[in-house]
User: Fold this.
Amino acid sequence: MFCRYRIQSDRKVAVCSVHPSEQATLQCLGCVKAKISVAKSYHCSPKCFSDAWQHHRVLHDRAASAVNENGNEEEEIFGRFNSTGSGVISASLTGSASSTSLTNGSTPLHPTAVTQRSGGETWFEVGRSKTYTPTTDDIGHVLKFECVVIDAETKLPVGHPNTLLTSRVIPAPSPSPRRLISVGGADMMGQLDSDGRLSSSGTFTVLSYNILSDSYASSELYSYCPSWALSWPYRRQNLLREIVGYRADIVCLQEVQCDHFDEFFAPELDKHGYQALYKRKTNEVYSGNIHTIDGCATFFRRDRFSHVKKYEVEFNKAAQSLTEVAVQTTQKKVALNRLVKDNVALIVVLEAKFTNQGADNPGKRQLLCVANTHVNVQQELKDVKIWQVHTLLKGLEKIAASADIPMLVCGDFNSVPGSAPHSLLAMGKVDPLHPDLLVDPLAILRPHSKLTHQLPLVSAYSAFLRGVGLGLEQQRRRMDPATNEPLFTNCTRDFIGTLDYIFYTADSLTVESLLELLDEDSLRKDTALPSPEWSSDHIALLAEFRCVPRTRR
Assistant:
Protein backbone atom coordinates (compact mmCIF):
# COMPACT_ATOMS: atom_id res chain seq x y z
CA MET A 1 0.00 0.00 0.00
CA PHE A 2 1.24 3.47 -0.84
CA CYS A 3 0.45 6.69 0.99
CA ARG A 4 1.73 10.16 0.20
CA TYR A 5 1.58 13.16 2.49
CA ARG A 6 2.31 16.85 2.37
CA ILE A 7 4.01 18.01 5.55
CA GLN A 8 2.72 21.48 6.21
CA SER A 9 4.33 23.62 8.85
CA ASP A 10 2.28 26.12 10.80
CA ARG A 11 4.74 28.70 9.43
CA LYS A 12 4.13 29.66 5.78
CA VAL A 13 7.19 29.33 3.54
CA ALA A 14 7.59 31.19 0.25
CA VAL A 15 10.37 30.46 -2.22
CA CYS A 16 12.34 32.81 -4.45
CA SER A 17 11.08 33.02 -8.05
CA VAL A 18 14.65 33.39 -9.39
CA HIS A 19 16.49 31.00 -7.09
CA PRO A 20 13.79 28.42 -6.20
CA SER A 21 16.06 26.60 -3.76
CA GLU A 22 16.20 29.76 -1.59
CA GLN A 23 13.55 30.99 0.83
CA ALA A 24 11.96 34.31 -0.12
CA THR A 25 12.55 37.37 2.07
CA LEU A 26 10.70 40.04 0.06
CA GLN A 27 7.74 40.37 -2.27
CA CYS A 28 7.15 42.71 -5.23
CA LEU A 29 4.01 44.70 -4.44
CA GLY A 30 3.78 45.72 -8.10
CA CYS A 31 3.11 42.09 -8.96
CA VAL A 32 0.43 41.86 -6.29
CA LYS A 33 -1.26 45.01 -7.59
CA ALA A 34 -1.09 43.81 -11.20
CA LYS A 35 -2.44 40.40 -10.15
CA ILE A 36 0.63 38.66 -11.52
CA SER A 37 1.30 35.10 -10.41
CA VAL A 38 2.05 35.27 -6.67
CA ALA A 39 4.97 32.84 -6.95
CA LYS A 40 6.69 35.18 -9.42
CA SER A 41 6.57 38.07 -6.95
CA TYR A 42 8.95 36.54 -4.38
CA HIS A 43 12.72 37.16 -4.17
CA CYS A 44 15.38 35.95 -1.78
CA SER A 45 17.24 39.25 -1.37
CA PRO A 46 17.24 42.89 -2.54
CA LYS A 47 20.21 42.06 -4.80
CA CYS A 48 18.28 39.17 -6.34
CA PHE A 49 15.37 41.52 -7.07
CA SER A 50 17.67 44.22 -8.46
CA ASP A 51 19.57 41.81 -10.71
CA ALA A 52 16.33 40.31 -12.03
CA TRP A 53 14.56 43.64 -12.52
CA GLN A 54 15.12 44.01 -16.26
CA HIS A 55 13.54 40.61 -16.84
CA HIS A 56 10.99 41.02 -14.03
CA ARG A 57 9.65 44.30 -15.37
CA VAL A 58 8.56 42.45 -18.52
CA LEU A 59 5.93 40.73 -16.35
CA HIS A 60 4.61 44.14 -15.34
CA ASP A 61 4.62 45.40 -18.95
CA ARG A 62 2.77 42.31 -20.15
CA ALA A 63 0.20 42.62 -17.37
CA ALA A 64 -0.40 46.27 -18.27
CA SER A 65 -0.66 45.36 -21.95
CA ALA A 66 -3.17 42.63 -21.17
CA VAL A 67 -5.36 45.08 -19.24
CA ASN A 68 -5.24 47.55 -22.14
CA GLU A 69 -6.47 44.88 -24.55
CA ASN A 70 -9.99 44.57 -23.11
CA GLY A 71 -8.70 42.76 -20.10
CA ASN A 72 -7.70 39.71 -22.09
CA GLU A 73 -4.21 38.30 -21.88
CA GLU A 74 -2.32 38.40 -25.15
CA GLU A 75 -2.18 34.77 -26.27
CA GLU A 76 1.33 33.56 -26.80
CA ILE A 77 2.82 30.34 -28.02
CA PHE A 78 4.42 29.51 -24.70
CA GLY A 79 1.54 30.97 -22.72
CA ARG A 80 -0.91 28.53 -24.29
CA PHE A 81 1.56 25.74 -23.75
CA ASN A 82 1.92 26.51 -20.05
CA SER A 83 -1.80 26.71 -19.49
CA THR A 84 -2.38 23.16 -20.66
CA GLY A 85 0.24 21.46 -18.54
CA SER A 86 -0.20 19.64 -15.27
CA GLY A 87 1.74 19.76 -12.04
CA VAL A 88 4.19 22.32 -10.75
CA ILE A 89 6.41 22.58 -13.79
CA SER A 90 3.81 24.02 -16.15
CA ALA A 91 1.05 25.19 -13.85
CA SER A 92 0.08 28.82 -13.57
CA LEU A 93 0.99 29.96 -10.07
CA THR A 94 -1.82 32.46 -9.66
CA GLY A 95 -3.53 30.25 -7.16
CA SER A 96 -3.59 26.80 -5.67
CA ALA A 97 -5.26 23.84 -7.29
CA SER A 98 -8.33 22.43 -5.66
CA SER A 99 -7.49 19.13 -4.04
CA THR A 100 -11.04 17.88 -4.58
CA SER A 101 -10.53 17.84 -8.37
CA LEU A 102 -7.02 16.39 -8.48
CA THR A 103 -6.06 12.95 -9.63
CA ASN A 104 -2.61 11.52 -9.06
CA GLY A 105 -1.76 8.15 -10.51
CA SER A 106 -4.82 5.96 -10.87
CA THR A 107 -6.46 6.94 -7.57
CA PRO A 108 -8.68 10.04 -7.37
CA LEU A 109 -7.83 12.14 -4.32
CA HIS A 110 -10.40 12.69 -1.66
CA PRO A 111 -10.83 16.08 0.00
CA THR A 112 -7.64 16.67 1.97
CA ALA A 113 -7.74 15.16 5.44
CA VAL A 114 -5.54 15.85 8.45
CA THR A 115 -3.86 12.59 9.37
CA GLN A 116 -1.45 13.65 12.08
CA ARG A 117 -0.05 16.66 13.91
CA SER A 118 3.40 16.66 15.45
CA GLY A 119 5.61 19.50 16.67
CA GLY A 120 3.82 22.26 14.80
CA GLU A 121 3.47 20.20 11.60
CA THR A 122 0.39 18.79 9.95
CA TRP A 123 0.44 15.79 7.58
CA PHE A 124 -2.10 16.00 4.79
CA GLU A 125 -2.76 12.87 2.76
CA VAL A 126 -2.39 13.75 -0.95
CA GLY A 127 -2.33 10.41 -2.75
CA ARG A 128 -2.41 6.61 -2.60
CA SER A 129 -0.77 5.58 -5.85
CA LYS A 130 2.71 4.52 -6.96
CA THR A 131 3.25 7.85 -8.68
CA TYR A 132 2.47 11.38 -7.60
CA THR A 133 2.76 14.67 -9.46
CA PRO A 134 3.31 17.63 -7.12
CA THR A 135 0.73 20.41 -7.34
CA THR A 136 0.94 24.12 -6.61
CA ASP A 137 -0.41 23.36 -3.12
CA ASP A 138 2.83 21.46 -2.44
CA ILE A 139 5.20 24.34 -3.22
CA GLY A 140 7.34 25.17 -0.20
CA HIS A 141 6.47 21.95 1.61
CA VAL A 142 8.16 18.61 2.20
CA LEU A 143 6.48 15.49 0.81
CA LYS A 144 6.46 12.15 2.58
CA PHE A 145 6.16 8.82 0.76
CA GLU A 146 5.07 5.82 2.83
CA CYS A 147 5.06 2.20 1.63
CA VAL A 148 3.83 -0.76 3.65
CA VAL A 149 3.52 -4.44 2.74
CA ILE A 150 -0.05 -5.81 2.86
CA ASP A 151 -0.84 -9.48 3.45
CA ALA A 152 -2.78 -10.71 0.41
CA GLU A 153 -5.13 -12.89 2.50
CA THR A 154 -5.74 -10.86 5.64
CA LYS A 155 -5.36 -7.45 3.93
CA LEU A 156 -3.48 -6.31 7.03
CA PRO A 157 -0.13 -4.47 7.16
CA VAL A 158 2.96 -6.61 7.63
CA GLY A 159 5.87 -5.04 9.48
CA HIS A 160 6.73 -1.36 9.72
CA PRO A 161 6.17 1.07 6.85
CA ASN A 162 9.14 2.40 4.88
CA THR A 163 9.15 6.17 4.50
CA LEU A 164 10.99 8.67 2.36
CA LEU A 165 11.05 12.47 2.75
CA THR A 166 11.70 14.85 -0.12
CA SER A 167 13.27 18.28 0.02
CA ARG A 168 10.91 21.25 -0.24
CA VAL A 169 8.90 21.34 -3.45
CA ILE A 170 9.92 24.30 -5.60
CA PRO A 171 8.01 25.92 -8.45
CA ALA A 172 9.38 25.10 -11.87
CA PRO A 173 10.90 28.17 -13.54
CA SER A 174 8.63 29.76 -16.12
CA PRO A 175 10.42 30.75 -19.35
CA SER A 176 9.67 34.03 -21.05
CA PRO A 177 6.92 33.43 -23.60
CA ARG A 178 8.00 33.29 -27.24
CA ARG A 179 5.50 34.57 -29.80
CA LEU A 180 5.15 34.03 -33.52
CA ILE A 181 5.97 37.32 -35.24
CA SER A 182 4.50 38.01 -38.67
CA VAL A 183 6.99 39.17 -41.27
CA GLY A 184 4.30 40.07 -43.77
CA GLY A 185 2.55 42.89 -41.95
CA ALA A 186 -0.52 40.94 -40.82
CA ASP A 187 -1.48 40.43 -37.19
CA MET A 188 -0.19 36.92 -36.72
CA MET A 189 -1.97 36.32 -33.44
CA GLY A 190 -5.30 37.00 -35.10
CA GLN A 191 -4.81 34.02 -37.39
CA LEU A 192 -4.90 31.39 -34.67
CA ASP A 193 -7.87 29.03 -34.40
CA SER A 194 -9.45 27.72 -31.22
CA ASP A 195 -6.91 24.90 -31.06
CA GLY A 196 -4.07 27.41 -31.05
CA ARG A 197 -2.89 26.48 -34.54
CA LEU A 198 -2.87 28.43 -37.76
CA SER A 199 -6.31 28.66 -39.33
CA SER A 200 -4.90 29.38 -42.78
CA SER A 201 -4.96 25.99 -44.50
CA GLY A 202 -2.27 26.96 -46.99
CA THR A 203 0.46 27.44 -44.39
CA PHE A 204 2.48 25.09 -42.21
CA THR A 205 5.05 25.46 -39.45
CA VAL A 206 8.48 23.85 -39.07
CA LEU A 207 10.49 23.58 -35.85
CA SER A 208 14.23 22.85 -35.68
CA TYR A 209 15.79 22.19 -32.30
CA ASN A 210 18.99 20.62 -30.95
CA ILE A 211 17.70 19.30 -27.62
CA LEU A 212 21.12 18.46 -26.07
CA SER A 213 21.60 14.73 -25.70
CA ASP A 214 21.76 13.49 -22.12
CA SER A 215 25.06 11.78 -22.93
CA TYR A 216 26.61 15.23 -23.53
CA ALA A 217 24.89 17.04 -20.63
CA SER A 218 27.62 16.53 -18.04
CA SER A 219 27.91 18.53 -14.83
CA GLU A 220 31.55 19.24 -15.74
CA LEU A 221 30.59 20.87 -19.02
CA TYR A 222 27.53 22.68 -17.68
CA SER A 223 28.57 23.31 -14.07
CA TYR A 224 26.52 26.51 -13.97
CA CYS A 225 23.23 24.61 -14.39
CA PRO A 226 21.73 23.18 -11.16
CA SER A 227 22.08 19.40 -11.09
CA TRP A 228 18.32 18.87 -10.77
CA ALA A 229 17.72 20.99 -13.88
CA LEU A 230 20.41 19.10 -15.79
CA SER A 231 18.99 15.68 -14.94
CA TRP A 232 17.29 13.90 -17.84
CA PRO A 233 13.98 13.18 -16.00
CA TYR A 234 13.54 16.94 -15.54
CA ARG A 235 14.87 18.00 -18.95
CA ARG A 236 12.85 15.52 -20.99
CA GLN A 237 9.56 16.73 -19.51
CA ASN A 238 10.55 20.36 -19.92
CA LEU A 239 11.63 19.75 -23.52
CA LEU A 240 8.45 17.83 -24.32
CA ARG A 241 6.24 20.58 -22.96
CA GLU A 242 8.16 23.15 -24.97
CA ILE A 243 8.05 21.13 -28.20
CA VAL A 244 4.37 20.25 -27.88
CA GLY A 245 3.57 23.86 -26.98
CA TYR A 246 4.89 25.19 -30.28
CA ARG A 247 2.32 23.02 -32.12
CA ALA A 248 4.55 22.79 -35.17
CA ASP A 249 3.35 20.75 -38.13
CA ILE A 250 6.88 19.42 -38.72
CA VAL A 251 9.47 18.96 -35.97
CA CYS A 252 13.18 18.39 -36.68
CA LEU A 253 15.19 17.44 -33.59
CA GLN A 254 18.92 16.83 -33.28
CA GLU A 255 20.90 15.02 -30.57
CA VAL A 256 18.06 12.61 -29.85
CA GLN A 257 19.43 9.47 -28.19
CA CYS A 258 18.08 6.30 -29.76
CA ASP A 259 16.74 4.96 -26.44
CA HIS A 260 15.08 8.31 -25.68
CA PHE A 261 13.49 8.29 -29.13
CA ASP A 262 12.10 4.76 -28.73
CA GLU A 263 11.05 5.03 -25.10
CA PHE A 264 10.00 8.66 -24.77
CA PHE A 265 9.77 11.05 -27.72
CA ALA A 266 8.14 8.73 -30.27
CA PRO A 267 5.39 7.46 -27.92
CA GLU A 268 4.82 10.82 -26.24
CA LEU A 269 4.58 12.81 -29.48
CA ASP A 270 2.40 10.06 -30.95
CA LYS A 271 -0.17 11.04 -28.29
CA HIS A 272 -0.18 14.51 -29.83
CA GLY A 273 -0.77 13.27 -33.36
CA TYR A 274 2.80 13.05 -34.67
CA GLN A 275 4.33 10.32 -36.80
CA ALA A 276 8.03 9.76 -36.10
CA LEU A 277 11.06 8.99 -38.26
CA TYR A 278 14.60 8.56 -36.98
CA LYS A 279 18.16 8.18 -38.19
CA ARG A 280 20.77 7.17 -35.64
CA LYS A 281 24.37 8.23 -36.06
CA THR A 282 26.63 5.49 -37.34
CA ASN A 283 28.90 4.09 -34.67
CA GLU A 284 32.25 3.33 -36.24
CA VAL A 285 33.87 5.89 -33.94
CA TYR A 286 31.59 5.64 -30.91
CA SER A 287 32.86 3.24 -28.24
CA GLY A 288 30.36 3.71 -25.41
CA ASN A 289 26.88 2.30 -24.82
CA ILE A 290 25.23 1.87 -28.21
CA HIS A 291 21.87 2.90 -26.76
CA THR A 292 23.17 6.40 -25.97
CA ILE A 293 24.19 7.15 -29.56
CA ASP A 294 22.20 10.15 -30.71
CA GLY A 295 20.72 11.01 -34.08
CA CYS A 296 18.19 13.09 -35.96
CA ALA A 297 14.44 12.70 -35.43
CA THR A 298 11.76 14.16 -37.68
CA PHE A 299 8.10 14.25 -36.65
CA PHE A 300 5.07 15.43 -38.62
CA ARG A 301 1.39 15.79 -37.86
CA ARG A 302 -0.59 12.96 -39.36
CA ASP A 303 -3.58 15.23 -39.94
CA ARG A 304 -1.45 17.65 -41.98
CA PHE A 305 1.00 15.43 -43.88
CA SER A 306 1.47 11.87 -45.05
CA HIS A 307 4.80 10.10 -45.45
CA VAL A 308 5.94 9.47 -49.03
CA LYS A 309 9.63 8.55 -48.85
CA LYS A 310 12.67 8.59 -46.56
CA TYR A 311 16.34 8.95 -47.47
CA GLU A 312 19.13 8.29 -44.99
CA VAL A 313 22.46 10.03 -45.51
CA GLU A 314 25.46 8.45 -43.80
CA PHE A 315 28.50 10.65 -44.27
CA ASN A 316 30.72 7.71 -43.28
CA LYS A 317 29.61 5.81 -46.40
CA ALA A 318 30.16 8.91 -48.50
CA ALA A 319 33.66 9.17 -47.00
CA GLN A 320 34.46 5.59 -47.95
CA SER A 321 33.28 6.19 -51.51
CA LEU A 322 35.30 9.40 -51.74
CA THR A 323 38.53 7.82 -50.53
CA GLU A 324 38.15 4.97 -53.01
CA VAL A 325 38.24 7.30 -56.01
CA ALA A 326 39.88 10.54 -54.88
CA VAL A 327 42.57 9.63 -52.36
CA GLN A 328 45.87 7.91 -52.97
CA THR A 329 46.17 4.40 -51.54
CA THR A 330 48.86 5.41 -49.06
CA GLN A 331 46.57 8.11 -47.63
CA LYS A 332 43.32 6.13 -47.43
CA LYS A 333 43.64 5.29 -43.72
CA VAL A 334 44.55 8.87 -42.82
CA ALA A 335 41.66 10.15 -44.95
CA LEU A 336 39.12 7.83 -43.33
CA ASN A 337 40.32 8.74 -39.85
CA ARG A 338 39.68 12.39 -40.69
CA LEU A 339 36.38 12.03 -42.58
CA VAL A 340 34.61 9.26 -40.65
CA LYS A 341 32.82 11.14 -37.85
CA ASP A 342 29.46 9.30 -37.66
CA ASN A 343 27.32 12.30 -38.65
CA VAL A 344 24.09 11.68 -40.56
CA ALA A 345 21.16 13.44 -42.22
CA LEU A 346 17.54 12.37 -42.47
CA ILE A 347 15.62 13.45 -45.58
CA VAL A 348 11.85 12.98 -45.63
CA VAL A 349 9.44 13.57 -48.50
CA LEU A 350 5.93 14.44 -47.31
CA GLU A 351 2.62 15.06 -49.04
CA ALA A 352 0.45 17.87 -47.71
CA LYS A 353 -3.16 17.08 -46.80
CA PHE A 354 -4.16 20.73 -46.72
CA THR A 355 -5.17 22.96 -49.61
CA ASN A 356 -2.39 24.93 -51.28
CA GLN A 357 -4.27 28.18 -51.70
CA GLY A 358 -3.26 30.28 -54.66
CA ALA A 359 -1.50 27.51 -56.58
CA ASP A 360 -1.89 27.50 -60.35
CA ASN A 361 -2.85 23.83 -60.29
CA PRO A 362 -5.04 23.12 -57.23
CA GLY A 363 -5.43 19.45 -58.15
CA LYS A 364 -1.70 18.75 -58.12
CA ARG A 365 -0.12 16.81 -55.23
CA GLN A 366 1.73 19.17 -52.89
CA LEU A 367 4.98 17.47 -51.93
CA LEU A 368 7.57 18.79 -49.51
CA CYS A 369 11.16 17.63 -48.93
CA VAL A 370 12.53 18.15 -45.39
CA ALA A 371 16.21 17.55 -44.58
CA ASN A 372 17.29 17.30 -40.94
CA THR A 373 21.00 17.10 -40.12
CA HIS A 374 23.67 17.57 -37.46
CA VAL A 375 27.08 18.47 -38.90
CA ASN A 376 30.36 17.57 -37.20
CA VAL A 377 31.17 19.68 -34.17
CA GLN A 378 35.00 19.76 -34.22
CA GLN A 379 36.03 23.30 -35.11
CA GLU A 380 39.46 22.32 -36.42
CA LEU A 381 37.90 20.05 -39.08
CA LYS A 382 36.71 22.87 -41.31
CA ASP A 383 37.20 20.76 -44.43
CA VAL A 384 35.00 18.00 -43.00
CA LYS A 385 32.18 20.44 -42.22
CA ILE A 386 32.24 21.89 -45.74
CA TRP A 387 32.42 18.44 -47.31
CA GLN A 388 29.46 17.16 -45.24
CA VAL A 389 27.28 20.15 -46.16
CA HIS A 390 28.30 19.90 -49.83
CA THR A 391 27.52 16.16 -49.85
CA LEU A 392 24.05 16.78 -48.38
CA LEU A 393 23.28 19.55 -50.89
CA LYS A 394 24.33 17.37 -53.83
CA GLY A 395 21.94 14.70 -52.61
CA LEU A 396 19.12 17.23 -52.35
CA GLU A 397 19.89 18.47 -55.86
CA LYS A 398 19.27 14.94 -57.17
CA ILE A 399 15.87 14.87 -55.46
CA ALA A 400 15.03 18.32 -56.84
CA ALA A 401 15.96 17.17 -60.35
CA SER A 402 13.54 14.25 -60.15
CA ALA A 403 10.52 16.15 -58.80
CA ASP A 404 9.07 19.66 -58.67
CA ILE A 405 9.30 19.89 -54.90
CA PRO A 406 9.83 22.66 -52.30
CA MET A 407 12.69 21.98 -49.89
CA LEU A 408 13.59 22.73 -46.29
CA VAL A 409 17.06 22.18 -44.89
CA CYS A 410 17.07 22.25 -41.08
CA GLY A 411 19.53 21.42 -38.37
CA ASP A 412 22.56 22.17 -36.27
CA PHE A 413 25.32 22.87 -38.80
CA ASN A 414 27.95 23.70 -36.16
CA SER A 415 28.96 26.56 -38.46
CA VAL A 416 28.72 30.25 -37.68
CA PRO A 417 27.33 32.79 -40.17
CA GLY A 418 29.94 33.72 -42.73
CA SER A 419 31.77 30.40 -42.45
CA ALA A 420 32.32 28.39 -45.62
CA PRO A 421 29.47 25.90 -44.88
CA HIS A 422 27.07 28.78 -44.22
CA SER A 423 28.20 30.58 -47.38
CA LEU A 424 27.65 27.41 -49.40
CA LEU A 425 24.13 27.06 -48.03
CA ALA A 426 23.10 30.70 -48.23
CA MET A 427 25.01 31.89 -51.33
CA GLY A 428 25.20 28.69 -53.35
CA LYS A 429 28.99 28.93 -53.51
CA VAL A 430 32.15 29.60 -51.50
CA ASP A 431 34.62 32.35 -52.28
CA PRO A 432 37.85 30.63 -53.44
CA LEU A 433 39.74 32.97 -51.10
CA HIS A 434 37.64 32.04 -48.05
CA PRO A 435 40.02 31.33 -45.12
CA ASP A 436 38.18 28.10 -44.23
CA LEU A 437 39.40 26.59 -47.50
CA LEU A 438 43.01 26.81 -46.30
CA VAL A 439 42.29 23.78 -44.09
CA ASP A 440 42.21 21.00 -46.67
CA PRO A 441 44.97 18.43 -45.98
CA LEU A 442 43.29 15.76 -48.14
CA ALA A 443 42.59 18.14 -51.05
CA ILE A 444 38.94 17.02 -51.02
CA LEU A 445 37.70 20.59 -51.56
CA ARG A 446 39.61 21.14 -54.79
CA PRO A 447 38.95 22.55 -57.25
CA HIS A 448 37.13 25.18 -55.19
CA SER A 449 34.88 25.90 -58.15
CA LYS A 450 33.04 22.63 -57.47
CA LEU A 451 31.76 23.97 -54.13
CA THR A 452 28.44 25.13 -55.55
CA HIS A 453 24.81 24.07 -55.75
CA GLN A 454 21.74 25.21 -57.70
CA LEU A 455 19.12 25.14 -54.94
CA PRO A 456 17.69 28.65 -54.31
CA LEU A 457 18.15 28.40 -50.55
CA VAL A 458 17.45 31.31 -48.21
CA SER A 459 17.73 31.37 -44.41
CA ALA A 460 14.24 31.71 -42.92
CA TYR A 461 15.30 34.07 -40.14
CA SER A 462 16.72 36.56 -42.62
CA ALA A 463 13.06 37.50 -43.17
CA PHE A 464 13.23 39.49 -39.93
CA LEU A 465 15.50 41.96 -41.74
CA ARG A 466 13.47 41.97 -44.96
CA GLY A 467 9.92 41.84 -43.61
CA VAL A 468 7.44 44.50 -42.58
CA GLY A 469 5.13 44.23 -39.61
CA LEU A 470 4.56 44.94 -35.94
CA GLY A 471 7.25 43.79 -33.54
CA LEU A 472 9.97 43.46 -36.15
CA GLU A 473 12.13 46.29 -34.84
CA GLN A 474 12.79 44.44 -31.60
CA GLN A 475 13.64 41.28 -33.53
CA ARG A 476 16.03 43.18 -35.81
CA ARG A 477 18.05 44.16 -32.75
CA ARG A 478 18.53 40.45 -32.13
CA MET A 479 19.88 39.91 -35.66
CA ASP A 480 23.31 40.46 -37.16
CA PRO A 481 22.78 42.73 -40.22
CA ALA A 482 26.17 41.71 -41.61
CA THR A 483 25.14 38.07 -41.96
CA ASN A 484 21.30 38.26 -41.91
CA GLU A 485 21.25 35.69 -39.12
CA PRO A 486 20.33 35.70 -35.40
CA LEU A 487 22.99 36.89 -32.97
CA PHE A 488 22.88 33.48 -31.31
CA THR A 489 21.11 30.13 -31.29
CA ASN A 490 23.61 28.51 -28.92
CA CYS A 491 24.58 30.08 -25.60
CA THR A 492 26.96 28.52 -23.08
CA ARG A 493 29.60 29.93 -20.75
CA ASP A 494 32.25 29.17 -23.38
CA PHE A 495 30.45 30.13 -26.58
CA ILE A 496 27.64 32.32 -27.81
CA GLY A 497 26.76 32.38 -31.49
CA THR A 498 24.56 30.98 -34.24
CA LEU A 499 24.91 27.35 -35.30
CA ASP A 500 21.33 26.40 -36.19
CA TYR A 501 19.36 27.31 -39.31
CA ILE A 502 16.20 26.68 -41.29
CA PHE A 503 16.84 27.12 -45.03
CA TYR A 504 14.08 27.00 -47.65
CA THR A 505 13.82 27.11 -51.44
CA ALA A 506 12.69 30.67 -52.14
CA ASP A 507 11.21 29.87 -55.56
CA SER A 508 8.52 27.63 -54.04
CA LEU A 509 8.10 28.74 -50.41
CA THR A 510 7.65 32.06 -48.67
CA VAL A 511 8.04 32.89 -44.96
CA GLU A 512 4.88 34.14 -43.25
CA SER A 513 6.05 34.37 -39.64
CA LEU A 514 8.88 33.38 -37.29
CA LEU A 515 9.20 32.43 -33.64
CA GLU A 516 10.67 35.41 -31.86
CA LEU A 517 14.31 35.24 -30.89
CA LEU A 518 15.61 35.30 -27.35
CA ASP A 519 17.98 38.04 -26.30
CA GLU A 520 20.53 37.94 -23.52
CA ASP A 521 18.11 39.76 -21.23
CA SER A 522 15.68 36.86 -21.66
CA LEU A 523 18.28 34.54 -20.17
CA ARG A 524 19.34 34.61 -16.57
CA LYS A 525 22.12 37.09 -15.98
CA ASP A 526 24.03 34.69 -13.76
CA THR A 527 24.03 31.70 -16.08
CA ALA A 528 23.85 30.46 -19.66
CA LEU A 529 22.10 27.56 -21.37
CA PRO A 530 20.94 25.02 -20.38
CA SER A 531 19.13 26.51 -17.41
CA PRO A 532 16.11 25.59 -15.30
CA GLU A 533 13.94 27.53 -17.78
CA TRP A 534 15.45 26.24 -21.04
CA SER A 535 16.62 22.63 -21.08
CA SER A 536 19.03 22.75 -24.02
CA ASP A 537 22.10 24.82 -24.78
CA HIS A 538 20.44 25.69 -28.11
CA ILE A 539 17.22 27.62 -28.69
CA ALA A 540 14.40 26.37 -30.88
CA LEU A 541 13.82 27.93 -34.30
CA LEU A 542 10.35 27.89 -35.86
CA ALA A 543 9.06 29.29 -39.13
CA GLU A 544 5.65 29.39 -40.79
CA PHE A 545 5.74 28.85 -44.56
CA ARG A 546 3.35 29.07 -47.46
CA CYS A 547 3.78 27.16 -50.70
CA VAL A 548 3.75 29.43 -53.75
CA PRO A 549 3.72 28.65 -57.50
CA ARG A 550 7.28 27.84 -58.53
CA THR A 551 8.99 30.63 -60.43
CA ARG A 552 9.47 29.72 -64.08
CA ARG A 553 13.08 30.05 -65.21
